[in-house]
């Protein structure tokens, strides 16, 4: 049985090395707002729910060649908003890692000061998504940057913040082995397989979305998990619509022998590559 179609990704928790530096980056380059700041943690977003939670640990190294975060994806509500973001990134001399037209979306890629990958994107309407033989066909074509910037017009005003309805819409993870990852996310949790991308990646989703979770072995087949407390992904948040929907997933995890820890903020689970996720509902305390 598929996971509830209203399931979404709602937030990402990261370990970073310098809280002040990270806050300055996410504010100045991407337009996030500070929702709450304490000594070593900060909650950022676009004015509504928390989207990004940062926790400082200045003594832990950044490791490579492990499982963990490939990127998290910030979905803006329109092409104009993406154009505003592109202009802001140019104005702040941001170091870009790439640009792509995926058919279903247009995307900008960069990393934060600790190397955490970020995708900033806008979706095309579902009626425009490319299919072949009844299967979704996401690609990686060049992005028309000039055409994107033309959305702003000659008299466009300056932009300083993300639109209020910006969300975290998907995460893309390094895993050890794709068959194990597929079994966990599709066969156990109930996400639908939407597309395979070459021999080293696949994408899964709920409710017909192009993907809520990307999975790849680009860090190496059999890649180990990072050491505890390493810079990068602490966990991401999967939000289900209600307790019944979450309970169905937890029951399937239990039947599969997957450990699940009940916390005040939700149910903490790890995939076979040790990537952590928190299963929440709207009734849970903010994580």
Structure description:
The protein is α+β, with helices and mostly antiparallel strands and 287 residues long. The protein contains five helices and 18 strands. The chain has an eight-stranded mixed sheet with strand order 2-3-4-1-15-18-17-16, covered by helices on one side. Strands 6-7-8-5-11-14-13-12 form an eight-stranded mixed sheet. The chain is globular. 39% of the residues are buried. The mean pLDDT is 95.
Q: Supply the helix-strand structural class.
A: alpha+beta
Low-pLDDT stretches are none
Q: Mean of residue pLDDT? A: 95
What is the general shape?
A: globular
Helical stretch count?
5
Please give the order of strands in the largest beta sheet: 2-3-4-1-15-18-17-16
Q: Give helix and strand order, one letter per element, not per position.
A: EHEEEEHEEEEEHEHEEEEHEEE
Mind telling me the C-alpha Rg? 18 Å
State the total count of DSSP E strands. Answer: 18
Q: Strand fraction band?
A: 35-45%
């Amino acid at each position: 049985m598929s996971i509830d179609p209203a399931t979404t990704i709602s937030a990402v928790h990261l370990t970073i090395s310098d809280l002040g530096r990270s806050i300055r980056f996410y504010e100045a380059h991407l337009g996030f707002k500070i929702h709450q700041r304490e000594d070593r943690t900060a909650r950022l977003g676009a004015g509504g729910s928390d989207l990004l939670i940062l926790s400082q640990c200045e003594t832990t190294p950044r490791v490579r060649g492990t499982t963990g975060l490939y990127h998290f994806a910030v979905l803006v509500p329109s092409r104009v908003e993406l154009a505003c973001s592109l202009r802001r990134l140019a104005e702040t001399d941001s170091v870009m890692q790439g640009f792509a037209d995926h058919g279903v979306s247009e995307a900008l890629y960069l990393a934060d000061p600790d190397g955490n990958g970020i995708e900033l994107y806008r979706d095309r309407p579902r009626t425009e998504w490319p299919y072949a033989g009844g299967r979704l066909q996401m690609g990686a074509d060049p992005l028309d940057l000039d055409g994107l910037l033309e959305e702003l017009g000659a008299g466009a005003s300056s932009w300083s913040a993300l639109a209020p309805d910006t969300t975290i819409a998907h995460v893309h993870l390094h895993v050890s082995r794709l068959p194990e990852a597929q079994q966990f996310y599709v066969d156990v949790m109930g996400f639908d397989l939407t597309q395979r991308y070459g021999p080293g990646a696949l994408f899964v989703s709920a409710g017909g979305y192009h993907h809520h979770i990307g999975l790849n072995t680009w860090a190496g087949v059999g890649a180990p998990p990072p050491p505890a407390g390493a810079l990068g992904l602490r966990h991401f948040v999967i939000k289900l619509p209600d307790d019944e929907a979450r309970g169905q997933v937890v029951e399937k995890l239990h039947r599969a022998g997957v450990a699940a820890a009940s916390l005040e903020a939700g149910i903490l689970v790890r995939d076979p590559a040790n990537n952590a996720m928190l299963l929440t509902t709207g009734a849970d305390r903010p994580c």
